Amino acid sequence: MTELTPIKQAVATYAARAAEKLRAQGSVCKRMRVSIRTGMFNPNELHLAKGALVELPYPTNDTLLLTRAATEAVEKVYQDGYRYSKAEVLLLDLRQPGEFTDDLFAATQPVACDRLMSVMDGINQRYGKGTLRSANVPRSPEWGMRRELLSQSFTTRLDQLWRVYCR
Known about the structure:
By secondary structure, the protein is an alpha+beta fold. It has helices spanning 4-25, 63-77, 111-127; strands spanning 28-38, 49-60, 84-95. It has a three-stranded antiparallel beta sheet. The model has no long low-confidence stretch (mean pLDDT 86). It has one domain: 2-Layer Sandwich (Dna Ligase, domain 1), CATH 3.30.1490.100. Helix 1 packs antiparallel against helix 2. It is globular and about 75 Å long. It contains three helices and three strands, in the order αββαβα.
């Protein structure tokens, strides 16, 4: 990818998925690292790998806050003129809610945010993954993984095991 918009969409998608996983395990995070890089194996292309560490205002598992912070971080590290091939979102400082011991006046995740994320997860469980999502997360992105040539999963899926018939 050479343009900023699809890279921001990819990072927002990864951050949203990470937030879903945080909520599923009942965790929150306080920091996040967002990285983008070019392909490292083509000697004819310019190489670049950059990342940014994002300190969140409070420990959170809020999809909207995480996607906003991740896309802002991408804007800081993106440089024009490169062909990017990988984006990453790493959640750091994971804990259970209430384990953080900030000062008395530190901001905490609003209760309304918890309710909103609970409703969002419930709708997505009932009507399918991605039914409700952040506006910067596309349903079927152009940059998505191509799966038409995906090989079968003989070692991990029983329904794809070979059947051998003897005559």
